[in-house]
Amino acid sequence: MDESSGIAIVTGAGSAEGIGFAVAKALGDAGMHVLITATTDRIRTRVSELRARGVDADGVVADLTEDRGVDAVMDAAREAFGAPTVVVNNAGLTSVSRADSPAPIDAISLAEWQTSIDRNLTTALRMTRAVLPAMIDAGYGRIVNVASLSGPVMAYRGDVAYHAAKAGMVGLTRAAAIDVACFGITVNAVAPGWIATSSSSEHELSMGAATPIGRSGTADEVASAVRFLAGRDASYITGQILVVDGANSIDEERGMP
Question: Of 140, 156, 162, 236, which one is the catalytic site residue?
Fold first, then answer.
């Protein structure tokens, strides 16, 4: 089995400038069949754009915080292409239908906490559990989780639940990697730093400019890392976190020219 025969599911791919859609393009350009998901009908436009560039693509609107949403994704993938060999868990970063309510530790409600954990962590658990039976049967699989620099490595003020969820994504990645390594399945994560997208605020862009590289990263740069981890060349890499942050997390001389 090579990349050209792979069947990939990419969640959270509704935004034209987001990481999920960039990943879908990268995997599709590598020859994979790609099933993308989002919570709104804009996923139809993304499918059309993928097909226009020659990618064998399909899409489905689904809420992955619910079992029926995961079932819809799996049914759509099987109907369009067959059993998935790759899943990229990117869902949860943003939603145009229901935004998270960031809050610090002394102000967050339990409902806000649960919503963020469900969207940013439990969705990855649900999708991973759903794809594992077919991957185990095939003796092959690639699971790539989109974590973040925020939570596993660093933090900023005022969004405790998001940080906890993304730190949890690293724990999920490592634990799942150990559980399924014997089946020929790898589980890894990427941890993006400041990435410029259409929703980036001026503050976020200024933080990107303050990295050692001097700019925010791009969604395509994150997608390149995902593409590597989703391919056959990454066969002996599992349980690892690949940081994509322009050296932001290792700079000890902040503010220096």
Answer: 162
pTM: 0.94
Q: How far apart are CA 232 and CA 254, in angstroms?
A: 38
Separation CA 241–CA 219 (nearest Å)? 17
Contact (CB, 8 A) for 58 and 44: no
The predicted structure's pLDDT at residue 98: 41
| Domains in the chain: boundaries | 3-192+219-236
End-to-end CA distance of the chain: 48
Check: CB of residue 8 under 8 Å from CB of residue 35: yes
Give the number of other CB atoms < 10 A from CB of residue 83: 15
3-192+219-236 homologous superfamily: NAD(P)-binding Rossmann-like Domain (3.40.50.720)
Write down the residue that tokens 């090579």 correspond to. Answer: 2
The whole-number pLDDT of residue 83 equals: 97
Helices marked H in the chain: 19-29, 42-52, 67-80, 110-117, 123-138, 160-180, 202-209, 219-229
162 part of the active site:
yes
